[in-house]
Amino acid sequence: xxxxxxxxxxxxxxxxxxxxxxxxxxxxxxxxxxxxxxxxxxxxxxxxxxxxxxxxxxxxxxxxxxxxxxxxxxxxxxxxxxxxxxxxxxxxxxxxxxxxxxxxxxxxxxxxxxxxxxxxxxxxxxxxxxxxxxxxxxxxxxxxxxxxxxxxxxxxxxxxxxxxxxxxxxxxxxxxxxxxxxxxxxxxxxxxxxxxxxxxxxxxxxxxxxxxxxxxxxxxxxxxxxxxxxxxxxxxxxxxxxxxxxxxxxxxxxxxxxxxxxxxxxxxxxxxxxxxxxxxxxxxxxxxxxxxxxxxxxxxxxxxxxxxxxxxxx
Amino acid sequence: xxxxxxxxxxxxxxxxxxxxxxxxxxxxxxxxxxxxxxxxxxxxxxxxxxxxxxxxxxxxxxxxxxxxxxxxxxxxxxxxxxxxxxxxxxxxxxxxxxxxxxxxxxxxxxxxxxxxxxxxxxxxxxxxxxxxxxxxxxxxxxxxxxxxxxxxxxxxxxxxxxxxxxxxxxxxxxxxxxxxxxxxxxxxxxxxxxxxxxxxxxxxxxxxxxxxxxxxxxxxxxxxxxxxxxxxxxxxxxxxxxxxxxxxxxxxxxxxxxxxxxxxxxxxxxxxxxxxxxxxxxxxxxxxxxxxxxxxxxxxxxxxxxxxxxxxxxxxxxxxxxxxxxxxxxxxxxxxxxx
Lengths: 314, 339
Prior knowledge:
The complex is a heterodimer of chains A (about 325) and B (about 350). By secondary structure, chain A is an alpha+beta fold. Chain A has helices spanning about 1-20, 25-30, 35-50, 85-105, 105-140, 225-230, 260-275, 285-290; strands spanning about 55, 70-80, 195-205, 210-215, 240-245, 250-255. In chain A, strand 5 and strand 6 (about 250-255) form a beta hairpin. In chain A, helix 4 packs antiparallel against helix 5. Chain B folds into 2 domains: about 20-165 and about 305-339, 3-Layer(aba) Sandwich (Cytidine Deaminase, domain 2), CATH 3.40.140.70; about 170-300, Ubiquitin-like modifier-activating enzyme ATG7 C-terminal domain (Cytidine Deaminase, domain 2). In chain B, helix 9 links the parallel strand 10 and strand 11. In chain B, about 30% of the residues lie in helices and about 30% in strands.
């Protein structure tokens, strides 16, 4: 599995080196972008959504086919107030209720509905327990250090190094309340607000943008990439979302694999065109980010929509 | 106007919070191995911050790999101009004290380091340098030990704040949209948009806002104080506020108040905590507050540096943070992961 991934990377790298980049637009035909179109779409994203900016990344990783100061797009400190997994549970619970309503008119089915109802009552109490458990697990694992995996016996215990009393600053003007918690959900005391740096790179092999996620936990310490998967829709976790080297930044990051991006974008473009909307290439990233939102539904990055995709996006 | 003698609450500031990108530790490691060696003298670095851009989370002071100097051999010319005027990355000067041993790290005299950094801020205020380059008001320091055998990075931030004694009191604070008239709010939003969209001013975190009787708003650099004073306009001292809280200003206001008092001798200060929503000025999130400061005259003496506070809280307590990057840096682990 990992080996095949490596082989594929090597293959991809070779293809990228020997092929010249796309110069003819195939945006409407294949849902893909040329390098120039990526820059146009990126410029438009930055101007409409100013929390996004272009960056140059590591000098050693710079791609020659992109301008030095426009290597990739990034938006930092994007809040993620809850885990995607817990949202899906609640969604299912709500779906159950609707089903019950539909069956309500039918006297014969009413008895059938009864056990469902009690089951739902139980569930009413349960989801918060579930999410609570998720929250607990995270906060315990992530506090001292981010890569605190099972096999890491080298994690230092900072408690040994309690600071001497003379450093205690008594200052009435320092806000002492645990300000981190201020806007957490009121129903329990578990901190859930993570933040993300979301970046978009250009994948020359697939000729589409590619999204990368760097997570930070409640105390703004780096999040292990594996924990990032909790913020990915469960349909996509471990399938379309993989953990790989970032093309412009050091380290491993979670990424939505771009192999289907062209096809999905093509489908979205087709739907728009069938409705008489002529998609423009500078809007590509808005459509793209709208589609990515179905993969990472709780990460509240910014994309404004210039036109409505309606229900067809799902 | 309210009498200063009546009991007013103390103005409390939400502490700054730090975030360190993985890239920072990667570059620090390679700097240490390839260039610095056992030289542990302090290195000037840059941190980055931006106004709060979401009602539910504060912004942070962020260290990225470009916070550190490059390894000379790498193209020096290429990186210098890149992040100029980036509205999402206002550069703040800082210093890193990276020790060679864990013992050395724990032995650092944190009080004096904080004091030394605070003195730089104090001197910049008195010399007027802080008027030219206002980001110097938010100067910070970080102490660290990079254990390159186990890939553990110990670190602790400080955001030095000169302490006002007695503390400033708060007359009132509320959303800018309530403090301003609708016309004023509209003009101010437009002026802020212009300031934030220009490459020349987007990353200038402290500024003067003057609102004329016809509601029109102008934003100026601190150094253009003379143009604002005494023209009868409403004057607000604006700053990019990283904090999201509805009743408290963020940390950068602390040294700003000191500057306003020292340079212009103003004791009743109207400040604007400038905040954004999704990258656009938001007068509902932004706050206008009124603070009163009463400071003994001795304070004007350049040689008596006021007390400073500002070591970062880590999970509600003062203490170091540690991050382990073995999975991203250890060649053995990388080899296993790749197999």
